[in-house]
Amino acid sequence: METREFPAWLEVLLKEKFFNACLDHEEEKKNEKNILCIDCRLSICPHCLPSHTSHRLLRIRRYMYNDVLRVDDGSKLMDCSLIQPYKVNSSKVVFINERPHSQFRGSGNYCSTCDRSLQSPYLFCSLSCKISDVIIGQRGLSGFIRVCNSLNLTDDENGGVDMFLCQALACTAATDIVRKKRSSLTTTTCRIVTTAVSSADIEAPANFLNRRKNMPPQRAPLY
């Protein structure tokens, strides 16, 4: 049940597994659920948009295999200050949930909730870590949640996928193409060689017998 202290859409944002295939459009391409409908409190895919045209929509992106959102988008709904941002495709993003990290703690700046190493002056590594800290410190989210009556879907840069991951996938695809070409060339060459050898094997006994018929018999030398 939604309350002013903890809205239902925020719980979905923190707990939903985004980028799974949409069951309503499983036959369609690009059917990953990477959009959160704030009004319906559920994740949707791009093919679901016609049914949510007048709703507040938040696009979820991927960075380093984790869900992130743009600071500009998230700041319309929540106070995203003091969360360490990362730059992806010229936009600043923040992680939605805490990520696994080493338990080793040295000197420097750390997340106030999970002790993850951070750059100064940031205090939180993710949105969920800040929410936990705010709930404990203020016993509510009244100062954290912002009033947002309209939230349009922002353009998706490079499909919301990590730019470096795209480059890696492109390199992998190019390598596979080269491998396939080499494999095809090798197979063709092997077939040609095998055919030539097979033909020689078939003709060799006949040629050899004809040559033996026209040659005088050879005897072993006497010593």
UniProtKB/TrEMBL annotation:
<dbReference type="InterPro" id="IPR000315">
    <property type="entry name" value="Znf_B-box"/>
</dbReference>
<dbReference type="InterPro" id="IPR006734">
    <property type="entry name" value="PLATZ"/>
</dbReference>
<dbReference type="Pfam" id="PF04640">
    <property type="entry name" value="PLATZ"/>
</dbReference>
<protein>
    <submittedName>
        <fullName>Protein RGF1 INDUCIBLE TRANSCRIPTION FACTOR 1</fullName>
    </submittedName>
</protein>
<dbReference type="GO" id="GO:0008270">
    <property type="term" value="F:zinc ion binding"/>
</dbReference>
